[in-house]
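Entry 12.
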Amino acid sequence: MPCGRVACRPANYNLVPSTVPRETPLKLTLNSGRVISLGVLCQDRTYEGHLAGYPHKRMNDETIERLLAKAPKLTSDQGKPLLIDPVISVRDRGARAIMGPEERLPEVACVARFDSNALAKIGSEPYSSLTIVWFQEAFGVPTDATILEQIRAIDWEDRATDWCW
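Predicted 3D structure (C-alpha cells):
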C-alpha cells in the first residue's frame, strides 16, 4: 500500500503547518455525539501483489494481518488499529478448490486515521486518534451505510489513543 498510489497523506498535506485549516474532507458524528474527522486515508487494491491462485480464507486472514501490522506506519498512529469486519463473498469452486471455497474480500483495502480534538479519557491529552481498517468496493471515502454505521458505533473513549503535540 504505497503512499503515492492513492491519497495516503494527511489532508492539506502541501500547506504550511501554521495555515492548515481544521476542516478535513470528512467529519462524522459518532453515536456518542463526539465529532471525528478524517486525517489520513490510504487505499490499495485488496489483492494487489498476489500473483496466482484464488482468494480463500487463509489468504484473506494473511492479507488482513499484514494490513493491520502496517496500518500504524501508514497513519502515524501509535494505537492498535480497529478492524471493521469485512463482508466476504463466498463461491464454491467444486472439485477444483484445493484451498477450499473462494472467499473474496471487497476490492479496496482501506486504512484511515480519524482524529478528535476532544479528550478520549478524562484528565488526559487534548487530542485523540484511532486508526480504522476496512474493505469497500470502490476507491474513496467511506460511503457504504454499513461501514459508516460501524464507524459511528465505535466506543471512542475505549479505543482511541490520546496525544499532544
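Annotation: Strands lie at 27-29, 35-45, 82-83, 89-91, 102-104, 108-116, 127-136, 161-163. The two ends are 27 Å apart (CA to CA).
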